[in-house]
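The records we work with from here on pair a chain with its fold. Here is one such record, which you should read through line by line:
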Amino acid sequence: MLPAVTRRQFRQNLAGVAIGLFATAAVLGAYLSGALDWLEKMTLDLRFSYTNSMVASPEIALLDVSDRDLELVGRWPWARDQQAPLVAIPAEFGARLVLVDLTWLEPEAIRSVTPDDADVSFDPAELAADVTLPRVQPDTMLSQAIAGAHAYLAYHYADVDIEHSESFSRAVDALLRGEEAEARRQADRIQERLRAHIRDKSELDLQRPLDRARLVVKLLGDPELDDELAAHPPGWDEEFLTRAIERCREAAVRRRLIEWFDADPARWHRPPHELVRAFYATLTSRSYDDDTRLKRALLQAYREVLSFTETTRRPLGPAERFAAIAPAVDVIEPVYFTHARVAQRCGFSTFEPDRDGTVRRLALLRTHRGCLLSQLGFSVAWDALGLTPERVSVEPGRLTLRPQGRPPLVIQLDAAGRMLVPWVRGREWTRQFDHLPASSVLELHQLRQARRHNDAELRRLLVQALSHPGLPRFHEVARLLGQVDSLAAQREQAQRRGDPQLAAWLEEQTGAILAEAEQAERELRRLLDSAADAASVEAGRPPPDAAAELRGLLADADAYRRGNAVVDARIGPVQSRLRKHFEGRICLVGYTATALADMRPIPTHPSAPGVMAHANLLSGLLTGRLVRWTSAANDTVVAALCGVLVTLVSVGLRPRLAALLVLFAAAAYLAIAGALVFWRWSYWIALTPATAAMIFPFFCVAVYRYVFVDFERRQLSTALSQYTSRQIAKQVADNPELCRRAETREVTAMFTDLRGFTGISERIGAERTQKILNACLGRFTEVMLRHEGMVNKFIGDGIFAFWNPVIYPQPDHAGRACDTALDLLAALDDLRREQQRAGGDRVFDELFVRIGLATGKAVVGPCGSEQKYDYTCIGDSVNVASRLEAANKFFGTQILVNGSVLDHVNGRFACRALGGVQVKGRQQAVPVYELLGRAGQVPREALEYAELFGRGVQHIQRRAWPAAIETFQECLGRRPNDPAAASYLAAAKAFLETPPPADWSGALELTGK
């Protein structure tokens, strides 16, 4: 059977292990349940910010719609003809591809261009009736810019839009098939999504997806139904119909329009203006020119159908191939069809932030109504890397790309099909990529507009001059020059229709006309420079009265030419800057203005524009630096191992050592797994579960040990701190088994006493006695603890202490005791001087300490009862030390030690041999020495006196009484007040008269304690 103590320790260790394992299981449970996700994401953000080696791709250039641009141009949204240069100019200056993170979901009205001072200089009625004002088609101009720029356009998908959702369409299909349960199930799915976005219950009750589906079924039969629907059996109330009727009418028309297109797919390729009237005729017999609700529903539905079709027209591949990593979305908000039709591709730019609102991941692929949708930045990367469906491998949670001429790219995806964006290093997003404000592009656009205006005015002046009645020879040139603007418009139309040959021919004709006009202008200037005479008309020169007018027109033309020169001087540097920024790169156009509500938290910055997400995603795909992460299973296994190891360490080692090891292991794990691995390989190893599995079990085990296991140790440490230094007490308390056993060992015991203090205390009273005694004993205790002695007890005005206990072995115990004795004398002197300087109690001048030291065997250990015990030592050496302390009165000394003490100090201290003494209670003589001081620090006179005294002691021990008498008389001659010399002199004279017995040991007998 195990000893009781061992069994208790085993049970305590087993309980500690159980607590540590339970704490580890709690950490794993919290991690797997997602409770630690917020902390792990915080560590990931720190890695992106501070241990990130990913750099921005040099192939990317950004064009920012910044706050400064809004100040210069005006608040957003700008007219689309103003936005067109943002797309066209980057392509013009060499951008390979243009990603446009601006959304155009609805048409913009055609407008007339009025003068800048129209509001104050013209009659509004006259302006409204003026059909000569030029008209601007914003969407047409923007589409032209998109068509020539290899542009990629952005759209969004949404969670809630009842009539446009796929679930709603399925509910309508189910009702048409008579499957009420399926329709209700789909409607419940929509209602669940609505609850997540609509908190007002009354508002939520008005949505009623199933009733809306029934309403669409009703309108499919007759799209023109309106007021009479209120009397329908479902009992639709007026408020519901007011909200739902028009949207449901659009949904019904949209379904019929799709069926009409599917019946004849060739219709998709016919111009919209031809098809709208034809389809309208299938819905009603009313005239298309009437403004009806049905017509408005048809136009809206037609735009939405075309927009959806054009937006999803160029998928990256078949949806079935990517189904494993492309979850379905219920609603999309497509790009306006005139823009989507000419775009390179359309991609969604919807962000799915984490619960804390930070955008860390982006979805790459989604599906909707059987169509594959791709993320905007990923769509650009797909074409930039030359990818095709055949060069892609799809696995659950993984997408492998094999670009042309580049290493394969392995993209890790989460359960929702999202990849972790490889955010490039840098705490300021404005410095992460090469940025250019939109005003730089608009500046060039405005300069070009100024030049076109100057050119138009210049042509107008030349036409006016060349068509002068007095110059018939130039009239044909003037007529042709007046057609230049018309030819330019025809050229633009040819470019829009995709007729490059006609556009080139028109441009050639325009150039020829301008060259002919330039020649005619030079000839006119020569005519004006020649002298006018009577034969001027006959010579073909202008009449004199017209020369001044013509010179004025040419002077105005020269002014416009000078204006063009100024514009050209400004255009050159701007074009150079734009070419340097865009040439050969992929341009990303997006908002960076804080006022446009597109700012989102990202790992490296609390607020960054959404276009930065596309830039970072595209940069990672182009550079091949992607972020991968460990699986939850691996993280769980690592955390479990860490928890088990820390539990064993916490139970098996001392708390301080265990804490150091755990802290070192946690720091090493954070440095290697968190910083080094992420910096070198962009690999995200979860830090939270493993670190928590180190710290939390250790904390739980430490608390258990502190509250239950270490209670006894703390008690023992408190008790021991009364005897020795706190450091020894704590060290001993960590191993209490040492304190529970007693053993015989060699110790050095010390007794101290204040000479005559009993009489002093009777004289000065209790209060002064307490104050003085506390000061002395406190100072003495400090000295003893400094030398790591065990202060066993206070005995009146004395102290009993010893060195080399079982609990704290001290091989140099005798030397420690001697140093302590000498320092006690010095401490009392210091205390006396302090009192003198402070004007304290003069009683301190009367104090005199006596010390006895003895080295020898003693029983050391706890002694006492179950209620109270002391850790003490008992033995002959203790008695000898006590007697030696008392013998100081006989010898007139302060520190007496026995011979065993000197045997252990190896000459470190100077002593005076006092011979052997026969202490009371002991049969054998005890060699006694007076401790004078540390070797090398004792005055020569004291050493010579000690040597002389020692010779006298030797004479006594050899029974040479006359020699002894002579020696001690010499000693008294040197120190008349030496009690030891007087005692030995008296003994020598007595022994001379009456010699001691033959078995005398040569020692003096001390009759008192």
Q: What stands out?
A: Residues 60-157+314-437+593-623 form one domain.
